[in-house]
Structure formats: structure tokens, C-alpha cells
Amino acid sequence: MQREWTGFYLDCRVASRQRATIHLLPNGLHITTESGKTLLWTYEDLHQTQGFYAGEQVRLEHGSPIPEVLLVADAAFLSGLYQLVPRLASRLHDPSRRRTRGLLTLLAATAAIGIVAVVFRWGIPAVAAVPLVPVPWEERLGQAIVQQIAPPERRCDDPILQRRLDEILGALTASVPHSPYAFRVIVSDDPTLNAFAAPGGSIVLLRGLIERTATPEEAAGVLAHEAQHVLKRHSTRTLLQHASTGLLVGALTGDASGIAAFGLDAARTLGLLRYSRDREAEADAEGMRMILAAGIDPAGMIAFYDVLAREGSAIPSTLQHFSTHPSTAQRIERLRALAAGAPAPHTSLGKAEEWVTLRTRCRAEPAKPSPGAMPT
Predict the structure, then answer these.
(1) Is 82's pLDDT higher than 50?
(2) Cα separations (Å) of 200 from 27, 141, 197, 222?
(3) Which residues contact 193 (CB under 8 A, 6 or more apart)?
């Protein structure tokens, strides 16, 4: 029986994950990360949150209230664990039962197609189908969208800036320990003042937006707002409401085979559409609550919203709701009301002077040629 496996380890305090070697022991899992960290997870505190279906990676969580996470792509890992520790039968999924589960999935897929027929026949909004969309499907769609919005050749790869943004995002998402999403932030070398929340946990910040933030707390406000779009599945809802029949069927059945083909259209859709007033208000309020839960000074989030409100038509249409919508002042006032009861002092994310230097590191990189451009 195989006792050693490979996977990824996340401590849920930073957005990045580490490669890990996992040894199956009678009393627990012995984990060694690529940084040299060693851990022993006892089986008593172990629970499975993903990996019940074929093609889905295994996700194990350990501890509380902020659990550590282990991701293993090979489902045979569960079989080995189940064989070594039979007492886990009632707590972990047995891959040998996937045949029965597969039949149930087929029946569910058939039912989902019926739901799609209802959606298109009687006009039920696609938002009603979003709870049926599997998280792995969202993640794959989000990856396809990011490939279009921020292709690798147009990303900022500065490790210092990336590490600081990962730390800020990790501080925010630590307040959501049971989130099904593995968040990550990507910086695109684009001078536009904009940001996108893709389905599945990817947040794209454009260089122009980062350079307009005066403090790390302002950047945290943007990340909190975008993270809430992910957690509330606003991006997924928006895309499904404007999706083709094929994309909607794929979402409901979990079929990822056509996601890459839909990625380009989905990226264009996400870039052109605005969220509804209610969804923006929800992302505002929940983003502020995330800021407060992380102990971050809420003044930074409000300050950046004030900047957007003053910019007016100088910012792209996807952000103009802050400056041109009649309720902008009321929205900012609601944020101030939420922040009014925040305890002080707040956790510092760093000095503003250091951030002013750090935020321009993307611009400091050598200019990258546009796709298809001839070298000079």
C-alpha cells in the first residue's frame, strides 16, 4: 500500500499554497512542506470538504476555527487512507462508492437539464441555478477568464509587491475560515484604474488601480470588495445570466470540457457588464465587515471610495457606479456608519510611505510587448 503522497498545503492565513509531501501514519498524517515546515494532523480533528466526485481534488481540513487545508489531486489517496485507518469510514468518503455516486450524478444531470428547460421556457432567472454550480467548475471558468483578462505575458511578476498583496488578502480571507475558495490575487500590467473578481477566487488588480492607492489599507478595501463578489458568487450569477445555453448546461452539470472555449466570451462579458445596485451594495457592506473582522483600519476603504467618486468619467464604466450613480454618497455614508463602531487601535498593514514606493514596482519592470507585437 502506498504510504507517501504529494499535494498542496494552505494555512488559510496567506493566499499562496505550498507543495507538500504527505506520509500516512496509523495515528495521523505527517506533512512536510516545501519550506521545511513539518506537521502532524491527528485523524480526530480531520474532516473532508471536497473530493466526493470523480475528477474533483480531495480537500481535507484540520483544526478550528481557522482550519489548515490539504489538497491532493489523486483520489487513490483516500483509498490508501481508508485502508490504513478503517475507523475513518464514517467520516471520509470511500472512493469505491463512486460508481453508485456516479449513477446518482447522472440522474442529477438529467434533472439539471430539465431545470435548464424550465429556465429557458418560463424565464426563471439564472440566478436561481447558481447554488447548483460546483465550485471546481467555477474555479476552472475563473482560470479561463483570467487567462484572457491577464495573460501571463502581461502580468507583473515583482515578488515583493506580490508577497505584500498576498499577505493583505490572506489577512482578509482568514476571517472566512470555511470558504470553499482558494483566493489568489493577480496584478496585470495595465494603466487602467480597474479590478475584476473572477469566479472561483481569482482577483485581478490592474496596475493603474494599485498606483492610485495611497496606503495598503486602501488596497485592502478593494480586495475585500472584490472578495465578496466571489463569496457571494456575483460574478458567476452575472455570467450565467448572460450565458449561452451551453455554458448554463455545463455549469449545472459540472461539465468542464467546454470551459476554455467559453473563457474568452466570459472575460469580455465580465469586463463590459456592471453588477446590479443590490450586488454592489452587498459587496460594499460585506467587504467592510471583512475589513473590520480582520482588524484593519476601515478608513482606508472609505478613502479609496472617495477617490473613485471624485474621478467621475475618468474611470472605466465598470467602476463608474461609484462616481455617477445617484446613490454614491449614501453608499459611502453607509460604509462610514458600519465603520463607526470599529474598535481601535487597528492592525497596521505597513507605513504609507513604504506603500507609495511599493505600489510602483510593477511600473519599474521592463515594458512587456503587447501580444503579437513585432520585436524592435
Answers:
(1) yes
(2) 34, 8, 9, 17
(3) 206, 208, 209, 212, 308, 311, 314, 315, 316, 319
The domain that holds 61 is classified in CATH as: 2.30.29.30
Q: Is the pLDDT of residue 222 over 70?
A: yes
Same domain, 286 and 140: yes
| pLDDT, tens digit (0-9, with 9 covering 90-100), for 140-184 | 888 888 888 888 999 998 999 999 999 999 999 998 888 899 999
pLDDT of residue 371 exceeding 50: no
Task: Please check whether residues 81 and 149 belong to one and the same domain.
Answer: no
Mean residue pLDDT of the chain comes to 77
The SS3 assignment for 38 reads strand
Rounded distance, CA 173 to CA 226, Å?
12
- 137: exposed, middle or buried (Cβ count in 10 Å: 0-12, 13-18, 19+): buried
Going 280 to 283 to 284 to 285, the CA torsion angle's sign is: positive
- 3-state SS, residue 219: helix
CA distances from 224 to 148, 170, 220, 230, 260 (A): 23, 11, 6, 10, 28
**Could you report the per-residue pLDDT of 17-30, keeping only the tens digit for each?**
889 999 999 889 99
Taking a C-beta distance cutoff of 8 angstroms, is the pair 222, 290 a contact?
A: no
Structural domain containing residue 221: 126-364
Burial zone of 323 (CB within 10 Å; 0-12 exposed, 13-18 middle, 19+ buried):
middle
60 neighbors 45 (Cβ within 8 angstroms): no
8-state DSSP, 363: H
CB contact at 8 A, 220 and 296: yes
With contact defined as beta carbons under 8 Å apart, do 186 and 135 qualify? no
Domains contained in the chain, number: 2
Q: How far apart, in Å, are the Cα atoms of 65 and each of 59, 62, 178?
A: 17, 10, 9
Q: Is the pLDDT of residue 370 over 50?
A: no
Which residue do the cell numbers 455549469 mark?
251
Question: Is the distance from CB of 301 to CB of 218 less than 8 angstroms?
Answer: yes
Query: Does residue 113 lie in a domain region?
Result: no
State the number of CA atoms in the 13 A half-sphere of 228 facing the CB: 20
Residue owning grid cell 504529494: 6
Residue type at 368 in one-letter notation? K
